[in-house]
Design goal:
- By secondary structure, the chain is an alpha+beta fold.
- It folds into three domains: about 80 residues, Rossmann fold, CATH 3.40.50.20; about 110 residues, ATP-grasp fold, B domain (D-amino Acid Aminotransferase, Chain A, domain 1, 2-Layer Sandwich), CATH 3.30.470.20; about 60 residues, ATP-grasp fold, A domain (Dna Ligase, domain 1, 2-Layer Sandwich).
- Helix 1 links the parallel strand 1 and strand 2.
- Helix 1 crosses helix 11.
Length: about 300
């Protein structure tokens, strides 16, 4: 029987999301017939290594955010020569760094939002872009820290003063329209989901709270835009050098009619696997239930040592 250690929890701002994902994965893998070793991750790296001794056949990486999604734990697992799910060190680090990922996407000819990296002190002094614009941390996921600054908004200095995500931030043009996402499994883009958030945008609360958002799957958008979203998601997955499962997030500006403008926001190399997550929902639509999805990830695990 294949032994699988599930890493979940972690020390990022997304710990609670990861705990939820991990619990789901543990139950699903047991249902699929694997020998499962749960490993709740904290800040003690030696304890993680000890929990992986003796070595499992595979590590299922259910961590989210910094140290779990940015190449850090991937490097440890490569060092230990243990195959693991999802992307390797380089792709994980690139995808987590919004500035680096945007450069890769632009070089590949993929559509990205206009923007630049700013010093947070600059935000306190003046608007870095024409209004409206978005301010986001460079190395966080799950919309942690994302703020929209609109015309007439007087929160700019308050956002800068309360900023806890490092001395720099990403400033981007605000793209009106709709929120779309596309899951990818290795060499296959699954489908397009439209996300209708209960808040003004798809923030952390909308992603993980019961009733925080409504998913329209498949998205009711123009067929040309639908096909383009699938193509761009797969191209972004390949441009970063990802493996296994990813999820690409888009804004779709159809305010002037369809087909509208698609803008690639980011690629998630550790898509959520919680009860409200999008990738499992897309896989289920195509006939792959949650235990089968988790088993697919285990069977496509690899070691990049």
């Amino acid at each position: 029987m294949t032994s699988v250690a599930v890493l979940y929890g972690g020390i990022s701002a997304e710990r609670e999301v990861s705990l939820s994902s991990g619990r789901q994965v543990i139950a699903a893998l047991r249902q699929a017939g694997y020998e499962v070793r749960p490993v709740e991750v904290g800040d003690d790296l030696a304890a993680i290594v000890a929990a992986l001794t003796p070595k499992p056949d595979v590590v299922f990486n259910a961590l989210h955010g910094r140290f779990g999604e940015d190449g850090a734990i991937q490097g440890v697992l490569d060092w230990l020569a243990i195959p693991y799910t999802h992307s390797g060190v380089r792709a994980s680090a690139l995808a987590m760094d919004k500035a680096a990922a945007k450069a890769v996407f632009a070089a590949a000819g993929l559509p990205v939002a206009r923007g630049r990296v700013i010093d947070v002190a600059e935000l306190e002094a003046t608007d870095p872009l024409p209004l409206p614009y978005v301010i986001k941390p460079i190395n966080e996921g799950s919309s942690v820290g994302v703020r929209i600054v609109r015309a007439g908004d007087n929160r700019r200095a308050d956002i800068a003063a309360a900023w806890t995500y490092g001395p720099t931030a990403m400033a981007e043009e605000y793209i009106p329209g709709r929120e779309l996402t596309v899951g990818v499994l290795e060499d296959r883009a699954l489908t397009v989901t439209e996300i209708i958030a209960s808040q003004s945008f798809y923030d952390y609360e909308s992603k993980y709270a019961d009733g925080g958002s409504r998913h329209v799957i498949p998205a009711a958008i123009h067929p040309t835009a639908f096909a383009q979203a699938l193509d761009i998601a797969l191209a972004a997955h390949r441009a970063l050098g990802c493996r296994g499962a990813t999820r690409a997030d888009f804004r779709y500006d159809d305010t002037a009619g369809e087909p509208g403008r698609l803008v690639l926001l980011e690629v998630n190399t550790q898509p959520g696997l919680t009860p409200t997550s999008l990738l499992p929902e897309q896989a289920a639509l195509l006939g792959m239930d949650f235990p089968a999805l988790c088993a697919w990830m285990v069977e496509h695990a690899a070691c990049r040592a």
